Structure formats: structure tokens, C-alpha cells
């Protein structure tokens, strides 16, 4: 596809403002710095593509999260500078939408909807079961970087309550008994969607 060809083309290092080039930690290897620099170059491709259209900030943020895995302050500032958007506005969008994360996340993000309909139908029990099974709190990631547990606002699927969302895939009418099975499935990659990852 022509668009993919365009996106895959890397920008030159000179297109990255010096103030945003990742300097790295003292112990960071040269290879790691280069990878980080390449990620900003990849992000530039999307920014250049989408800033031609107004109101594309969310799409750019989604692409940035795909590239970096999360949206730290440095990446938010970079997007603000490149798109001419106030940093406060970028940060406001990032913190408003639960699909964005400012912390590193695991391979799979398990979101429990805590909206009213899901809460009434046992969302808190689901959350407690998840935390027990994975031995982490909401907002945390397992030590093997496999799962991140989060809560989310209503996703507009109240008729399916309570819902567990795994990387955007909705598991309807979830119950505590299913949690163990669902976790095992994702660990083994048995779910049809997961085999693509
Ligand atoms: S309250 Fe959970 S989907 Fe609406």
C-alpha cells in the first residue's frame, strides 16, 4: 500500500529538534539510544501525515503509544511542539482517555469497566480476582511485563456488563470464575486474536 510505504520511510536525524533528541542515561548503550532516536523518527512520519488534517491529535497519540508502548512526558512534549498544540492540551487528552497510559504497560492490558452497570453486576469482584491472581494492584504491571491491570470508565457496552477488555477485545458477562481461564488463554496465546501478536 502506498501509504504504508510512506510511513515506513525513516526521517533523517536532522528532522528531530536537538532539544528532543533522547540523550539517554549514562549507562545506556549506544544501540539503545539509536533505537530511541529511531522511534522519534518513526513518530515524525505520522505527525507529518496527520497534522495536515485538523483534529488528529488522538490518532497521533495512538500512533505514539504504539511506537513507544506508553506516553511519557517527553513524548507528550515532543508531540505538542511538533503539532503546535499546548502541552497542557496534549496532557489533558492523554489523561482523559483510559486507552492512553503514561506508564510502561505489559503486553496485554486488562481493563475492568467500573461504570455503573458493570459495577452493579460485580466489576469490583472481578477486579479483586484479577489483583489476587496476578498479585498486582490496579495500574500496575506484572514483573514479567505480560499483564497490566487497569480500571476504566463506561465503554458504552452496558448491555454486556460486566465487561473485561483485553487490548481492546471485549469479554462480555465476565465473572470471577472465568478470570483464571482468560488469563491462561492469553498467557498461552490460545486466543485467536493473540496469535497475531
Ligand atoms: S458501565 Fe460498563 S460498559 Fe457501561
Task: Explain how this protein is built.
With 197 residues, the chain is an alpha+beta fold. It has two domains: 2-96, no CATH class; 108-196, Glutaredoxin. It contains eight helices and four strands; from the N terminus they run αααααβααβββα. The protein has helices at residues 2-8, 30-50, 57-68, 73-83, 87-96, 116-120, 123-134, 176-188; strands at residues 108-113, 147-152, 164-166, 169-171. Strands 2-1-3-4 form a four-stranded mixed β-sheet, covered by helices on one side. Helix 4 crosses helix 5. The longest helix is centred in the first third of the chain and has 21 residues, at 30-50. The radius of gyration is 19 Å and the shape is globular. It starts with a helix and ends in a 9-residue tail after the last helix. Mean pLDDT is 80; it is low at 1-26 and 192-197. The structure holds FE2/S2 (inorganic) cluster (FES).
Amino acid at each position: 500500500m502506498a501509504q504504508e510505504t510512506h510511513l515506513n520511510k525513516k526521517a533523517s536525524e536532522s528532522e528531530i529538534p536537538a532539544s528532543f533528541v533522547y540523550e539517554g542515561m549514562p549507562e545506556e548503550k549506544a544501540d539503545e539510544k539509536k533505537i530511541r532516536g529511531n522511534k522519534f523518527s518513526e513518530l515524525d512520519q505520522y505527525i507529518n501525515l496527520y497534522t495536515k488534517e485538523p483534529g488528529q491529535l488522538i490518532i497521533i497519540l495512538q500512533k505514539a503509544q504504539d511506537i513507544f508502548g506508553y506516553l511519557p512526558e517527553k513524548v507528550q512534549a515532543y508531540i505538542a511542539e511538533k503539532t503546535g498544540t499546548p502541552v497542557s492540551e496534549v496532557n489533558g487528552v492523554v489523561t482523559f482517555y483510559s486507552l492512553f497510559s503514561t506508564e510502561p504497560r505489559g503486553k496485554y492490558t486488562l481493563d475492568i469497566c467500573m461504570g455503573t452497570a458493570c459495577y452493579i453486576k460485580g466489576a469490583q469482584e472481578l477486579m479483586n480476582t484479577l489483583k489476587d491472581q496476578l498479585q498486582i494492584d490496579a495500574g500496575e504491571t506484572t514483573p514479567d511485563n505480560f499483564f497490566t491491570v487497569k480500571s476504566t470508565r463506561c465503554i458504552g457496552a452496558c448491555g454486556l456488563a460486566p465487561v473485561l477488555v483485553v487490548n481492546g477485545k471485549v469479554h462480555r458477562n465476565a465473572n470471577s470464575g472465568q478470570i483464571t481461564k482468560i488469563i491462561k488463554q492469553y498467557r498461552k496465546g490460545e486466543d485467536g486474536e493473540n496469535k497475531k501478536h
